[in-house]
């Protein structure tokens, strides 16, 4: 059942509290609050602020903006832009902690640098303004993407916290910043309804994480800076209506088809928005008891494998950064102790290297800590079934990473951040990866362009799926799972689906039924059975299996022995298949973080032509 927040704002002007009473974080003058931060935060940011003093602000060159169109590279521009953002945040916190004015001039330089920047739009996102393929931005035609929102949010919060000392330094700095925030963000938002992420234009593109990601920054810009109360109420009502479009895109199970990596900026950013609205209405807007809102938050719990490993279907990393404070706050908001415990378990350090990317979220975490007496261990759910996105997961024992863990998916190949992966499954043992979903490389122009499915990580041949007659799965919503069934008992969790519709007609597949099951009875194993019927016989059949562990082939058994000493064996019918192993070496920051420099693709290759057959894999720990 879908929910809507919009009707709650029928009397929005009366619900919004005055700016004088809106206090999301301590201002600079609240010395007790800033000096009460944990000592590790104080020491870290004082050191970072001192490192930034006296350095030139990095230059964003026209050539680096042009890289995206000319070469497809995003890194050179992003590196400089992110360094600017990081420096400003580091200087802000250092000044707030020390309180002596030593960093103020550098902060003013940082604000001025962003004000002088030609555009806050990322070069990869010029398409939102109809400028796809253009080398440089049009400064007279501003648009909003999630990077625009993050820059605006950082500037707004920086000035709000430091308003008094910055005004003493120069009254004109705040005026200039207000002009830039108004013309680049607020005016553009009020005047445009055609940005796809708003959800106001039907049948253009499905709303995804951009929506709450942008609003989690646009809301504080408006709430902290807009002076006209009537205009502010209209803008906030419009934001709420647009957030409704994001929420309406979710089915009742709250599943995020973009994966756990994007939960931070999808469901997690929605929580940020709800918290801003809750704060701005003195708690009178409260939707946390709604089942859908709760399920959206729990997705990150459902996709957790063990430690920092998460199920990473779609454009995700198997070892993503999932904000522990965000998970804890979501758990507290919906009163879910399991989610709070997961957040506690993910807290490896107080200061995160990614804090500067979400400064508002970081400040909320510091000044609205989730104190809890809950155990620090993650809940580790035994069984998960999300029927709407067709995602299942199962482990041998609830609350323990010991033993086998399996996850699998159905759905369709037109999902947000889609890979062609219907029927994909992964297997972990004792919390370690053995049969995997690779994830995604560092983004480039190809990632979201017409060449997306030429990238190897997007293709079904590099997932744990069959290739028939050389044909892989195709992209698009028409390529989908059918006849999906899930059964769970104490002794077994079983997931089955029909895959024929995920492949093109040329593959000649009349039926391809896959069953993935975890047997928790006496013989602990994961079983994968593919029953295939072809229109005409072919010997061109390959079963692909991806692993980070070098395989050893022994007759009808593949042995995977991880560096930690854990061993997994995969048994197959040696009368049906031979095995070919391909080593894949790569240098890619995203993939290296999860898998190191090497992966292996095992291909089980059919000995003879078949028209109808059944293939069985038995996967066990030894």
Automatic annotation (TrEMBL):
List GO terms (cellular component aspect). Answer: cell envelope
Q: Kindly list the places in or outside the cell where this protein is found, as annotated in its UniProt entry.
A: Cell envelope
SUPFAM superfamilies per record? Chondroitin AC/alginate lyase (SSF48230)
List, alphabetically, the Pfam families matched.
Hepar_II_III_C
User: What domain of life does the native source organism fall in?
Assistant: Bacteria
Domain named Heparinase II/III-like C-terminal is located at: 386-575
Task: Name the Gene3D superfamilies for this protein.
Answer: 2.70.98.70, Chondroitin AC/alginate lyase
Which Gene Ontology terms cover its molecular function? Answer: lyase activity
Please give the name of this protein.
Answer: Heparinase II/III family protein
Species of the source = Paenibacillus roseopurpureus
């Amino acid at each position: 059942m879908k929910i809507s927040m919009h009707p709650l704002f029928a009397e929005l002007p009366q619900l919004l509290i005055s700016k004088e009473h809106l206090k999301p974080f301590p201002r600079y003058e609240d010395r007790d609050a800033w000096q009460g931060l944990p000592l590790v935060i104080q020491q870290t940011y004082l050191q970072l602020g001192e490192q930034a003093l006296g350095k030139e602000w990095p230059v964003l060159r026209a050539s680096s903006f042009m890289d995206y169109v000319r070469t497809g590279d995003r890194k050179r521009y992003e590196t400089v832009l992110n360094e600017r953002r990081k420096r400003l945040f580091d200087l802000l916190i250092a000044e707030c902690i020390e309180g002596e004015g030593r960093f103020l001039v550098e902060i003013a330089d940082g604000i001025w640098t962003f004000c002088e920047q030609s555009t806050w739009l990322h070069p990869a996102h010029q398409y939102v303004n109809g400028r796809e393929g253009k080398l440089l931005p049009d400064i007279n035609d501003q648009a909003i993407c999630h990077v625009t929102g993050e820059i605006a949010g950082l500037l707004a919060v920086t000035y709000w916290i430091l308003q008094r000392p910055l005004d003493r330094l120069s009254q004109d700095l705040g005026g200039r910043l207000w002009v830039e925030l108004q013309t680049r963000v607020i005016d553009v938002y009020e005047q445009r309804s055609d940005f796809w992420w708003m959800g106001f234009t039907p049948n253009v593109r499905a709303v995804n994480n951009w929506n709450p990601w942008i609003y989690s920054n646009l809301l504080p810009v408006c709430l902290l800076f807009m002076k006209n109360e009537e205009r502010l109420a209209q803008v906030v009502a419009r934001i709420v209506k647009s957030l409704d479009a994001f929420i309406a895109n979710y089915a009742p199970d709250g599943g995020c088809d973009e994966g756990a990596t994007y939960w931070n900026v999808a469901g997690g950013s929605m929580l940020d928005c709800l918290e801003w609205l809750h704060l701005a209405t003195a708690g009178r807007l409260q939707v946390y008891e709604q089942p859908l809102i709760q399920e959206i938050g729990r997705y990150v719990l459902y996709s957790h494998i063990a430690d920092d490993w998460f199920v990473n279907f779609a454009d995700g990393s198997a070892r993503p950064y999932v904000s522990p404070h965000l998970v804890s706050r979501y758990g507290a908001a919906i009163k879910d102790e399991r989610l709070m415990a997961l957040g506690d378990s993910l807290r490896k350090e107080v200061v995160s290297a990614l804090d500067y990317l979400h400064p508002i979220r970081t400040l909320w975490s510091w000044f609205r800590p989730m104190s809890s007496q809950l155990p620090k261990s993650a809940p580790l759910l035994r069984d998960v079934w999300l029927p709407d996105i067709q995602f299942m997961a199962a482990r041998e024992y609830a609350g323990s990473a010991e033993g086998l863990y399996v996850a699998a998916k159905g759905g369709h190949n037109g999902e947000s951040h889609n890979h062609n992966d219907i029927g994909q499954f992964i297997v972990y043992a004792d919390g370690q990866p053995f049969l995997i979903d690779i994830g995604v490389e560092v983004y480039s122009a190809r990632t979201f362009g017409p060449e997306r499915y030429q990238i190897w990580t997007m293709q079904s041949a590099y997932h744990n799926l069959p290739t028939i007659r050389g044909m892989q799965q195709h992209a698009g919503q028409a390529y989908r799972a059918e006849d999906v069934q899930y059964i769970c008992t104490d002794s077994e969790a079983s997931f089955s689906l029909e895959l024929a519709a995920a492949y093109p007609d040329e593959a000649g597949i009349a039926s391809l039924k896959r069953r993935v099951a975890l047997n928790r009875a006496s013989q602990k194993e994961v079983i994968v059975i593919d029953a295939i019927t072809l229109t005409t016989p072919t010997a061109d059949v390959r079963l692909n299996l991806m692993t980070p562990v070098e395989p050893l082939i022994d007759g009808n058994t593949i042995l995977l022995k991880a560096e930690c000493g854990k061993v997994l064996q995969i048994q197959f019918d040696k009368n049906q298949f031979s095995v070919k192993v391909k080593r894949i070496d790569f240098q890619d920051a995203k993939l290296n973080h999860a898998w190191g420099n090497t992966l292996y693709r095992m291909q089980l290759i059919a000995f003879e032509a078949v028209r109808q057959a059944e293939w069985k894999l038995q996967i066990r720990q030894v």
